[in-house]
Amino acid sequence: MQDKFVPIHGSTRGLERVQASRQFAGRFGRMFRTLEPADFDKKDLQCLAAAMVAEREDPPTPEGQDDPEENSAISAGYTYLGQFIDHDLTFDPTSSLQRDNDPDALVDFRTPRFDLDCLYGRGPDDQPYLYEADGVRMLLGRRLCGNPYDSNSYDSKTRDLPRNAPVSGPKRALIGDPRNDENVIVSQLHATFLRFHNRIANWQKDHCEDADFRTVQRLVHWHYQWVVLNDFLPTIIGWVMLSSILPHLVKRTSILQDKPNLQFYAWRDEPFIPVEFSVAAYRFGHSMVRPLYRLNTTLPDRQVIFSRDPHVPDLRGFREFPAQWAIEWNLFFRMGPTPRQGPRRVQPAYKIDSSLVNPLGHLPPSIAAQVPSLAERNLLRGLRMGLPSGQVVAKKMGLPVIPDAQLKVGKATQKDSPSNKLLVDISPKFRGKAPLWYYILAEAQQVFRSHKTPIRLGPVGGRIVGEVFAGLLLGDPYSFLNQDPGWRPIAEFAKNGKFGMAELIAQAMQA
């Protein structure tokens, strides 16, 4: 939620310069408006949630060695890039697990666009405390140490988020979306985007006279949108699915030459966020979370992502974390040659499957007091939102329905797969009717054959995520696809002609 502003002397600051965006908030809606909601017994969903949460593993896999739950197709950083993107697109403070929700009545307190309002807030005129005095560059926080690749001969260049300094209590981040401080990794990703904005501002100042905030912001938007289309999406849904939606990406043409193919996501006036996307398909990232991460190679130990013990250092956010926890991003994204094993390897994300790591089944009270299981929260929210079943959506899409005999619950590993429970063994009421979020995870899991099998979203999940992402960009009159379909990232920012998240981070570290 944004800070409340109290008008002074009868005037409202920022009124003299209205945002170019025509809306700061939008509506949620339905992608499949005619499909009936699936009805489930709450106790059955709770049993399914319990089965989806893995048992605690102690001790974990030795540091730097292959873990059978790892996904060879996706590096760990994409888990948190996906979270950052979600915070850019959606924020619903009114949804509740305790009552039914009408998607058409829910307000999304984020523009349904890839416009980084989670980064910029309402802009330098209305929220000047996010910006430097020039109104162009973003404010940064204290220096962090631990990343040997982000330093000069004098000091570390890694920066935390800017934070308040209360006499007592936690130091909260002063950023456009407070949710981007909910864990150490996404908070440092947000800080990296702040630095990338400043890098663009420096580049713009060096190369041309026009270095005003709007120009810099537009360039940051377009580089970010390019990463979403050309790096994040193919990593998550695969190039085959992406090319069926946006054929110009593979053909290296433009949307003017090869038209987009959106079969199911349509809107009347302006794009909206479908609940099938926000409540089901886009929650695939919860299954990708690892229980442990190595933040940098200078720390002796990895850190547990969540802990209910307040005396155990972990990755929970909404507070200032140790200064030596600077993230070494080459441990999260492929930024150059790295060993396959050992403490300097790129950590893979966990597989997209119907299993969540144990810490996500026992979230701390500060995050989830009444329903501490993330799996249960997702399943109950799908019920409250009246989502159709996965089988019904597959039929609507003209796709083969996964038989009940192939819908299992648990890890996609050679050890666990043979003994994983069938969904219908948890409750016979799931026969031919699976919760959409679970179905999308189980669908991705169908390709599993061995530890090295790359797992991405399947036909239902991949189509929903791909079409919504493409539609939001196509429906945004200010996206680079509409403003300049032939646009390409700044040439010197690319590496071997490629610009993705790794290249964006590399440029941010120059700021």
Observed structural traits:
single chain; about 500 residues; mainly alpha; Myeloperoxidase, subunit C; 3-stranded mixed sheet; two-stranded antiparallel sheet; 15 helices; about 30% helix; disordered N terminus
Description of the molecule:
It is a single chain. With 511 residues, this protein is mainly alpha-helical. The protein has a single domain (35-508), classed as Haem peroxidase domain superfamily, animal type (Myeloperoxidase, subunit C, Orthogonal Bundle), CATH 1.10.640. 30% of the residues lie in helices and 5% in strands. It has 15 helices and nine strands. The chain has helices at residues 42-52, 77-89, 117-120, 184-207, 213-237, 239-245, 247-251, 275-280, 374-384, 390-396, 423-426, 436-445, 459-474, 480-483, 501-508, and strands at residues 26-29, 70-75, 107-108, 273-274, 292-293, 303-304, 348-350, 408-409, 421-422. The strands form four sheets. A three-stranded mixed β-sheet has the order 3-1-4. Helix 4 (184-207) crosses helix 5. The longest helix has 25 residues, at 213-237. It is globular, with a radius of gyration of 22 Å.
